[in-house]
Design brief:
The protein has helices spanning 2-40, 56-66, 77-93, 112-122, 124-133, 137-168, 173-178, 193-206, 218-221, 231-256, 268-273, 279-300, 306-334. With 341 residues, the protein is mainly α.
Length: 341
């Protein structure tokens, strides 16, 4: 009984150690996005609340908490209120198997990649339920767009995962990272480059971020699936979007960029020079690069037309992944060094 209680307490502590920093990171990612895009567009960005605007996320949270939650009269109230939870819960649950360093994670399961794929896919149900339950044509249009887009890009993303599984011979995330040991050129981004690019494009589309943000499409359908939401219910959708951004970024770092491994592993002088850097720092640096890419894309590309998004997913990404999976399978069978062993 005591051992069970200790296990529960220890697990809860690990969960809080992940969730609290994650929520803070999500809040300040909104600030970082506004600042980075502002500098890219020769603007200043938030600079009023706190020193150089650093308290702006706190002010935004307080504003959302103080706003009234207005539930449309004709909506399905139960589904209307549960939709934001359906969006945020999978984004937080997926972090339970993320390895930050060897054996530093909440739980270690052998089907880790499958679990991540499931969690990243379930989040779209929150969008679909929100669009339908709001009983609004604009919200419903956004939900339908999101459904078609998600189905289109889940397929190439799944194929990209298959390529990693073939190369590593395991679905365990720690095993996948260990298979990439040996330095920058041994990471899976190089032998699985087409799958890596496909994963990243699919991840941007899955999270409904520009230039694939047709489920919102502010200039076309007011605000998309969450047009009828206000206050903290709208804020939870916002939170889920940014939490998913960080999640798919850290998945990219783990599956294709060596996770917590140093890029100088195997290079005698540099390896000794950077040996003091903890693995979690390398992982966060790689994740930060992918998050920055999100902001870069938003500041650079206009929104794709709906037909362009469908064409990219079905006619380009899926054929590319299918061909490269065959290449990877041949490499694994022939045991081609150094990656397919």
């Amino acid at each position: 009984m005591i051992d069970t209680l200790i296990f529960i307490i220890w697990t809860l502590l690990k969960i809080f150690a992940i969730v609290i920093p994650l929520l803070l990171a999500v809040a300040y990612l909104t600030f970082l996005e506004r600042k980075v895009i502002g500098y890219m567009q020769d603007r200043i960005g938030p600079n009023r609340v706190g020193f150089r605007g650093v308290l702006q996320p706190i002010a935004d949270i307080i504003k959302l908490l103080c706003k009234e939650i207005i539930v449309p009269t004709a909506s399905n109230k139960y589904l209307y209120l549960i939709a934001p939870i359906l969006s945020i819960a999978p984004a937080l649950a997926a972090w339970s198997i993320i390895p930050f360093q060897p054996n530093i994670l909440v739980t270690d399961i052998n089907a880790g990649v499958l679990f991540l794929f499931a969690m990243s896919s379930i989040g779209v149900y929150g969008i679909l339920v929100a669009g339908w339950a709001s009983n609004s044509k604009y919200a419903f249009f956004g939900a339908l767009r999101s459904a078609a887009q998600t189905i289109s890009y889940e397929i190439p993303m799944g194929f990209a995962f298959v390529g990693v599984l073939l190369a590593a011979g395991s679905m365990n995330l720690q095993t996948i990272v260990n298979h990439q040991s040996g330095g920058l050129w041994h990471w899976y981004w190089l032998p699985l480059l087409p799958l890596f690019v496909t994963y990243w494009i699919s991840a941007v589309a899955e999270t409904n971020r520009a230039p694939f943000d047709v489920s919102e499409g502010e200039s076309e359908i007011v605000a998309g699936f969450h047009v009828e939401y206000s206050g903290i219910t709208f804020g939870v959708f916002f939170l889920a979007e940014y939490a998913n951004m960080i999640l798919v970024s850290i998945i990219a770092a783990i599956l294709f960029m060596g996770g917590w491994l140093s890029p100088f592993d195997g290079i005698p002088i540099l390896d000794k020079l950077f040996n003091f850097v903890p693995g979690i720092v390398w992982l966060m640096a790689k994740t930060g690069f992918f998050v920055f890419t999100y902001l870069w894309l938003r500041a650079t590309f206009p929104r794709y037309r709906y037909d362009q998004i469908m064409r990219l997913g079905w006619k380009i990404l899926i054929p590319v992944t299918l061909i490269w999976i065959i290449v990877v399978a041949i490499g694994v069978q022939l045991k081609l060094p150094p990656w397919f062993s």
